[in-house]
Amino acid sequence: MLWVIAGETESFSTNALLALYMKSHPTNSYSVPQLNNYPTGRYLVGYWIGITGIVTSAMILVPGSSTATIFGAYYWAGSVYACQATFFAWANDVMRYKDDAMRSIVIASMNMGSNVVNAWWALLFYSADQAPFFTKGMWAMIACSIAMAIWTAGIVYFSARDEKQEEARMLEEDVPSKLEVA
């Protein structure tokens, strides 16, 4: 029963409520690309994860933080699990013009790379002897969160650039066929 109830807390996403809200907005009108893109979140999740990691780590690092504050920080930090599905979907979207084999390698490498780092990361930054505050781990999380925001911005930049190049390439391919018809 727990998951029956909890599964419904995902209703905003699973029922595409943002897209439906946008489509039926009483005053604003959204284009098809806006309706398709705004609800996906994509890179915004990267920024959210970065902010979450920095703020929650800082909450734990502050000397004298109450137990309730630290519990709250850990619970809030749990929201980063949302990034996994979003980032894998975003990677697929960003690479939609790439070769299928290349896309498969990138997706597999994302998972493998995370697992390889996770194999030693916890030992170095979150070992039991560093409890209760995991100071090294909190600083590592802040660094990762900053890196996440920077990496996300880089992907946004390069994917926008690649998108423009692909559109230009498609236009170039289309122009000769139109000239031949004329």
Automatic annotation (TrEMBL):
Keyword presence, Transport: yes
A Gene Ontology term for the protein's cellular component: plasma membrane
InterPro entries referenced in this protein's UniProt entry, alphabetically: MFS_trans_sf (IPR036259)
Signal peptide annotation: none
Compartments, record wording: Membrane
Protein name (database record): Uncharacterized protein
Keyword Transmembrane recorded: yes
Domain of life: Eukaryota
Keywords: Membrane, Transmembrane, Transmembrane helix, Transport
GO molecular function, a single term: pantothenate transmembrane transporter activity
TM spans (from-to): 44-62, 74-92, 104-126, 138-160
